[in-house]
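Sharing a chain and its predicted structure for anyone who wants a worked example. Both blocks are below, sequence first, tokens second.
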Amino acid sequence: MTTDAAPDAGPAAARRPASPVGGAGHIRGTGWADPSRSVRATITQASLDRAFTILMAIAAIGFGAVNVPGLIKQLPYLDAFWAPAAAITMALSLVAVGISAIAQRWSQVAQAVCALLFLVALLTFPLTVHDGLPGDQVPWPWWLCNVGTIAASLSFATWRAAVYNALVPIIYVVLRLSPAGGGASLQRAFLDGAYTAVLGIAALVLIVVLRRAAAAVDAAQATAVRRYSRAIREHATEVERVQVDAIVHDSVLTTLLSAARADTPDAKTLAARMARNAIDHLAAAAADGPGEDQVVPFDVLRDRIVASVTSLGAPVEVRSAPVTGPGLPFSAADAIASAALQAAVNSVQHAGGDVSRWLTIIVDGSSVQVEVADDGAGFDAHAVPAERLGVRRSIIERMAAAEGEADLRTAPGSGTRIVLRWPALGSEDRDVVRPEIGTGSGEPEAHA
């Protein structure tokens, strides 16, 4: 998010340096407004899969624990070796599903293995029974039917999960009608099978619908990010086009029309004066070629950074701010000032309470380095989703566009530090590996 941009004051204002506090005149940083507020989604496919994994882990452990008393009660009727072996194997798969809530990269594999092992346990249950179960008992896999169907819905392709959800109730009904499954009545067996089928199909439909909706949200986010990046690239071209159009219309065409209508000495004098002004405008536009900027005095840049950063709601200590330094091109000065303010705003918003914050400005010959840091909560930069744009756009890419760089140093519990440099160091001089993240510092989309 860009916090210090003033409204567009027109093409002429775009050529003026910013004021020390960034409040007056046109700020080129306006084009860097962070669109993440409108793009950010509460539910993404990754967060949805994470929620499904946690729910699946709870269900697996919970239903597995509930099944223990029933299994113990059935042990006298079961084979002394194969029944415990099948039960222990199934229990280990349930534990693996539970652990996958922490190690999520293995969640799909654990769920698929659990679904397949349950199907094997259901099919082979009659082989583990001696003479059949009493009529008042149900086969122990009954309590895990929907654990298996939901695990299949989460880990299999949709059509495979649908086949699985159809097979499990049918197999269970056949098992329940057999002596090995307790020899239940047709009505009882059918009701149990229908219960399993309804819950399994409902879960499958819900999972498929939510995943498709989350995928659509992710696609919309990616489209918004692409369009935003393209808009940034087009912004500079549009600004130049507006400036040229203004010069041509306001100076050249007006001068030509005045000269064509000049039929008195005063009118001719006015037309000549307008022609000189038009020539001056064209000369200034020609002099301001690609890569050239008005120079902003260092003291103006320093005052702007200090005033904007220290005007926030939380105290920021200025540890060093030299009196003299090199003049910077307007684009570089604006990028440094805006990025420093963004870093300070993120720190205030996300570093936590009772946090020390400081600002350091260092001059080394013709280069300028600005550090904004805090000893707050910090965060895992590698875990920041790519769609989070705040620091990536407003700090890292903003500095890169001005031929500078922004280095991020942070870790959970270790505070956050952002170092802005202009011009950028050569690759052989960099001692910081910038993380490949969707944002930069300190919000949970990056804080700092």
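Comments welcome. Strands lie at 295-296, 317-320, 328-329, 357-364, 367-374, 405-410, 416-422.
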